[in-house]
Design goal:
There is one protein chain. Helix content is 24%, strand content 29%. With 317 residues, it is an alpha+beta fold. It folds into two domains: 44-167, no CATH class; 183-304, Sandwich (Immunoglobulin-like), CATH 2.60.40. The longest helix has 28 residues, at 3-30. It is elongated and about 105 Å long. It starts with a helix and ends with a helix.
């Protein structure tokens, strides 16, 4: 074979390679993703019930006129932010290239009808409008998912951890906090707020004193903030007697009147609010931030006031 023939073959090979690259590039640029569409194409606003199931049972969350509630916890308020977030995640899921579609892979990835990590049912007016199985994790914050009655399995951004079936995990932990407080009344004091200024009134006549009482603004503000940011841990399943003689009660007007009852028992801390039957557990920090305040801490008597300057003392003589 002559050099001219060899050169011709190399040129032809080069042209073939270029043609292949051009065709491949064009195909990539014009190819459409495989079935890229919303898995559950519905509006979150129509959903009024969410059912999350695992091998231990199921949890129902219901939407009412006043917001989402947890039936298993006497219809206490659910965490609206958490609910909105998980609904957004579910309704934003888009299909792509399936990682599998065989019947055997459903069990392997734990998205089978009888073998799954989570099953989430979306209900609207008693009608199921979407159902999805959530299985094993192929990577960080991802899960294998499959729509009910479909074969394709996808690896999508959804975290099983965000779908707990323990009702306490969905509880609105701030449900007994209160805003716009007008007054707080304890055993020996009454804090009153007028025009955003606090004053303290002594309510225990046995502690009467001739000294003038001035409010400790820092401690008054701290007590106000403790009620505004009060969070609970969970609903207790124990039989707790909140009428115990060791219980401590405070009345809060904001503007409705609520009576809070606090109790420490066996190194556990409990709280109840008069308009809610449930008894909650709370942290020692939140317990102490409220129970540490009393007339003494909320007031400054004349004996506690800083000494007058010399020239002021002469004027008062």
């Amino acid at each position: 074979m002559t050099n001219r023939e060899t050169s011709g073959l190399f040129v032809l090979l080069g042209l073939q390679i270029i043609l292949i690259l051009v065709v491949y590039t064009y195909a990539q640029g014009n190819a459409r993703p495989h079935d890229t569409k919303l898995l559950i194409p519905i509006d979150a606003e129509i959903i009024d019930e969410l059912i999350i199931s695992d091998d231990s049972g199921e949890l129902r969350l219901n939407k009412t006129a006043d917001g989402w509630v947890i039936p298993k916890l006497d219809s206490l308020s659910a965490n609206e932010i958490k609910l909105s977030s998980i609904l957004s995640d579910l309704l934003s899921l888009k299909s792509g290239w399936p990682v599998a579609s065989t019947a055997g892979s459903q069990s392997r990835f734990k998205v089978a009808g009888e073998n799954f990590n989570r099953r989430v049912d979306l209900i609207s007016k008693t009608v199921k409008v979407g159902s999805i199985y959530v299985g094993t994790s192929p990577g960080f914050k991802k899960s294998h998912v499959r729509l009910d009655e479909q074969k394709n399995i996808y690896a999508l951004p959804l975290n099983t951890y965000d779908l707990p079936t323990d009702p306490a995990d969905w509880l609105d932990k701030s449900l007994i906090a209160v805003q716009n407080i007008r007054s707080i009344e304890g055993i020996d004091f009454k804090l009153v707020s007028e025009d955003r200024e606090w004053s303290v009134v002594q309510t225990d006549k046995e502690l009467a004193t001739e000294s003038n009482v001035e409010v400790n603004k820092d401690n008054a503000t701290a007590l106000d903030m403790a009620f505004k940011t009060l969070t609970v841990l969970s609903v207790t399943n124990e039989d707790i007697n909140m009428d115990d003689s060791e219980a401590y009660r405070l009345k809060v007007f904001a503007p409705n009147q609520f009576t809070y009852t606090f109790l420490e028992k066996d190194d556990q801390y409990y709280v109840n609010r008069s308009d809610i039957d449930s008894i909650f557990t709370l942290s020692k920090f939140n317990f102490d931030s409220i129970l540490s305040q009393n007339l003494e801490s909320l007031s400054i008597s004349e004996t506690d006031a800083p000494p007058l300057a010399p020239d002021v003392q002469q004027m008062t003589d």
